[in-house]
Amino acid sequence: MDTPRIFRTPGDVVWGRGSLSYLENTRGKRALIVTDKSMSGLGVVDRARRYLEKAGLEIRVFDEVEPEPSSNTVKKIVKAYSDFSPDVIVGLGGGSAIDASKGFRVFYEHPQLDFEAAISPGASPLSFQGFKKTIHICISSTSGTGSDASRVCVITHSELGVKVPIFHQDCIPDIAICDPDISDSMPDKVLLDSGLDILTHALESYINDNTNDFSKGLSLQSFSLAMQFFPQASLQRDPAAMEHMHYAATLAGMGFSNSSNGIAHT
């Protein structure tokens, strides 16, 4: 008998222009927004804060996530905000901000884990039993990483300067909000790079040895959307095309989280 496999995605995927407003429905007492300076500068953090405040939550914001978040940054967030005791974590931004929010959640909820061992190259997969204190909401500002729907958290070792992935099915966020109004602000180069990221994720997850009937549908639809809408999105910044690309990124993230990536991502 084959070993049973589990297909996992975010509990809810909230999509559509203006869907950031779904934060008004958040249940909790205290929310930590993990983000970066660009999201603060564009006013997206303030909008998210207002929606969460309408839901009655007390808010804290950490907006110092750098590109390719470092282990020192994750440790800084854990040290600064563990006493705040958030029961809602919002990862807002590109893959870096979302990965930093995932890292915070892991080590905030499971302080018994050896941080240095976990982020060492070649470390064994983390073993922990899910999350009980928090819900995790991820809102992507780019259309490529799929981190808003994936089981992967990538942290850069501060001393060694190498990326270390943390894989765990429970790292898949509880809620993914796909609001193209936010991703419309991507610079041209990020828009182009993100589109290539979608194609890579979708293709790798479709053809690798771990692919399956469930993941293939997501990967194929993501690839199909990207092939259809990438030219208009990247060359003309067509709003409808950019919207489809944004959804394609999340579909690809769900696909490779239930399959795998290829050697290009090792």
Automatic annotation (TrEMBL):
Q: Where is the Alcohol dehydrogenase iron-type/glycerol dehydrogenase GldA domain?
A: 10-180
**SUPFAM superfamilies recorded:** Dehydroquinate synthase-like
Q: Which is one Pfam family of this protein?
A: Fe-ADH
Q: Which PROSITE patterns match?
A: ADH_IRON_1 (PS00913)
- What are the Fe-containing alcohol dehydrogenase-like C-terminal domain coordinates in residue numbering? 193-266
* InterPro entries referenced in this protein's UniProt entry, alphabetically: ADH_Fe/GldA, ADH_Fe_C, ADH_Fe_CS, Alcohol_dehydrogenase_Fe
An example of a GO molecular function for this protein is:
metal ion binding
Q: Which GO terms describe its cellular component?
A: mitochondrion
Per UniProt, the keywords (alphabetical) are: Oxidoreductase
Q: Which PANTHER family match?
A: ALCOHOL DEHYDROGENASE, HYDROXYACID-OXOACID TRANSHYDROGENASE, MITOCHONDRIAL
Q: What is this protein called?
A: Uncharacterized protein
